[in-house]
Amino acid sequence: MATIIRPADWATERASIRAVREEVFIREQKVDPDIEWDDQEETAQHFLVLEDGVAVGTGRITAAGKIGRMAILKSVRGSGLGFRLLEAICEYAREAGVNRVYLHAQRHAEGFYSKAGFVADGPEFVEANIPHIKMVRHFG
Fold first, then answer.
1. Domain N-acetyltransferase: where (predicted)?
2. Whole-angstrom Cα distance, residue 68 to residue 41?
3. CATH number belonging to domain 3-99
4. What would the mean pLDDT of 113-125 be, rounded to a whole number?
5. Cβ neighbours of 1 (radius 10 Å)
6. How far apart are CA 45 and CA 116, in angstroms?
7. Contact (Cβ atoms closer than 8 angstroms) between residue 63 and residue 96
8. What stretch of H or E contains 89?
């Protein structure tokens, strides 16, 4: 399979981005659709993971350096695509001159983000009825 991870344009590729997020967050994790879509969609830099031209993953980074909405379809989870996506987003941030990025990790995924160089920063909190922890990664 040919895998491509690349920046995506919300205006022209929103259907692919939405399809992945709807499957992972809304159907699988039962996130309320009213809070899944926010005012950052049009200004964030989105990314797509494509396998043979089909979207299987997505993520984004905001101007403030917040990585979020990381989602990989269940059918390809565990294949390393999530890590590769995260590294692509971090590389994009580094190239843009960002010194640090952060994210709100679902607690069950804290180990995944730790392996990518993120460190917990603060207490656990609940977001979309799911326990999370803020995690930060510094570049330099």
1. 3-140
2. 11
3. 3.40.630.30
4. 96
5. 9
6. 20
7. no
8. helix 81-95
Q: Cα Rg for the chain, rounded, in angstroms? A: 14
Give the tens place of pLDDT for each residue, 57-100.
999 999 999 999 999 999 999 999 999 999 999 999 999 999 99
State both tokens at 90: 């971090």
Token pair recorded at residue 26: 């809304």
* Closest to 68 in 3D by CA, of 123, 128, 4: 128
Give the span between the Cα atoms of 97 and 91, in whole angstroms.
10
Rounded to whole angstroms, what are the CA distances from 135 to 19, 104, 117? Answer: 26, 6, 9
The answer to whether residue 1 scores a pLDDT higher than 90 is no
Neighbours of 131 (CB within 10 A): 13
The first and second tokens of residue 16, run together, are 């692919």
Residue 58 neighbours by CB distance under 10 Å:
24
Give the CA distances from residue 46 to residues 2, 86, 107, 133, in Å, rounded to whole numbers and listed in that order: 20, 12, 23, 22
Alpha-carbon distance of 24 to 20, in angstroms, equals 6
Report domain extents, the chain. Answer: 3-99
% the chain with pLDDT above 70? 100
Residue 17 structure tokens: 């981005």
